[in-house]
C-alpha cells in the first residue's frame, strides 16, 4: 500500500496545476493518475500533416490571469508564445461578421443593419421585461428575435444537441456583454463595441501545439505522474484507490459521472450524478486552407454538421489546413483524421447548479475535492482552471 497526502485523478490543466503548486510549495507526497498515455486532457496536441493540432478542440491561453501565466511560463517561457488579437467570425447571411455579432452589426450592409437593429430594439431587456429562466427565452429577451433565430438558437442547438429549453442561464457570463446603447454606437461609429469575456488577446505556442506546456508540467513531476492508468475502484471511507494507494485527500478532476462505477454512492448523490449532462465532440482535420483572416469561425447553419472551424494556418506558424468541431451526436462518418472526445463540455441544464452543489459538498465531507471543468461541472477555460487549482492547492496545504 502506497500512502500519499494527495492523489490527483486526471492530468488535465487542473490536475497538473494542482500538482505543480504542491511541488512548488515543497510537498512531494502526491500522485497524479491519468487514463491517457500523455497529459493535457482536452488540451493535448498531436502532429497532423506536419504541424500540431489540438485534439480536444481549439484552446488558447487568455492573458488576464497573472498567477496562471506565471505558473505556465515556468515551464514554457513567455518568448515561446506568440500573442494575437482575437479574430473570430460568424458565418451569417452569406458573409462573415466578427464576434460578437451584436457589437459588429456595422459590418453588414445597411439594410441588414436596420433589420437587426429593429429586432434588438424590441428585445425584452430593452423594453424592461423580466429576465426569463431558460436559455432559449433568455436569448430572445437579450438579443431580439432576429439574432436569436439566425445565429444563437441554431448554433446552440448544434453545439449542445438537446432542447434549448432544458438549459438554464447561470452560465451566460461566458457570453459577450453588449448593451443596446453600445450596439447603436458601434453602428454609428463603424467599429466594434462591447466586451469579450475571454481571449480578446491570447497566446499560442510559437513552435508547438497548446498541449506542449501541459506535457512539460507532467514531465517535471517525474514518477509522481502515472499515465495509462485505468481506475477500477475507490474505497470512499478509507480513500484507497484500487486497493493500492491510500490518500489523505483525493483531488477529483475526472467527470463525476464516472464515479458510480468506481464506488457505492447513496441514492440522493447517485441521482444527482445521473442528472449531470455532458457533450462529446469530434475534431476532424481538413488539409485545405480557408480564405479568412479569422482564428476561428462559428457556423450556425444547421445544414452543416460542425459548429466551429479552427483555422490553424492563422495562428500556428508554418501550418496549413483547418479543423472542425462537431457534437458527437451530429457527426457523420470521418473522411480523414479524426479525434474523438467523449467528454468535451459539461452542460448547464436546469437544476445543474443544485445537483453539482450537493455532489461537491458531499464528497468534500469525505476528503474528496472536486476541481476543474469536470470537478465543478463548469465550462471553464484552461487559464481559469489553472487559477482555481492554485487556490485549491493553497487551501489544502493550509488545512
Could you walk me through the main structural features you see in this protein, from its secondary elements to its overall organization?
This protein is an alpha/beta fold and 399 residues long. The protein has two domains: 2-87 and 202-398, FAD/NAD(P)-binding domain; 100-189, no CATH class. It is 32% helix and 23% strand. The protein is built from eleven helices and 19 strands. It has helices at residues 13-24, 66-75, 110-121, 124-127, 135-160, 180-189, 211-220, 267-274, 352-364, 372-375, 382-398, and strands at residues 2-9, 30-33, 45-48, 51-54, 61-62, 81-85, 88-92, 95-98, 201-205, 225-226, 234-235, 240-241, 245-252, 277-286, 296-298, 308-310, 322-327, 338-347, 368-370. The strands form four sheets. Strands 1, 2, 10, 11, 12, 13 and 19 form a seven-stranded mixed sheet that branches. Strand 1 (2-9), helix 1 and strand 2 (30-33) form a beta-alpha-beta unit. Helix 2 (66-75) crosses helix 11 (382-398) and helix 3 packs across helix 5. The protein is globular. The two termini are 24 Å apart. The model has no long low-confidence stretch (mean pLDDT 96).
Spell out the key features of this protein.
alpha/beta, globular, 7-stranded mixed β-sheet, about 30% helix, about 400 residues, FAD/NAD(P)-binding domain
Furnish the topology, listing elements before pairings.
Layout: E1 2-9, H1 13-24, E2 30-33, E3 45-48, E4 51-54, E5 61-62, H2 66-75, E6 81-85, E7 88-92, E8 95-98, H3 110-121, H4 124-127, H5 135-160, H6 180-189, E9 201-205, H7 211-220, E10 225-226, E11 234-235, E12 240-241, E13 245-252, H8 267-274, E14 277-286, E15 296-298, E16 308-310, E17 322-327, E18 338-347, H9 352-364, E19 368-370, H10 372-375, H11 382-398
Parallel strand pairs: 1-2, 1-13, 2-10, 7-15, 13-19
Antiparallel strand pairs: 3-4, 5-9, 6-9, 7-8, 11-12, 12-13, 14-17, 14-18, 15-16, 16-17
Helix pairs in contact: 1-7, 1-11, 2-11, 3-5, 3-6
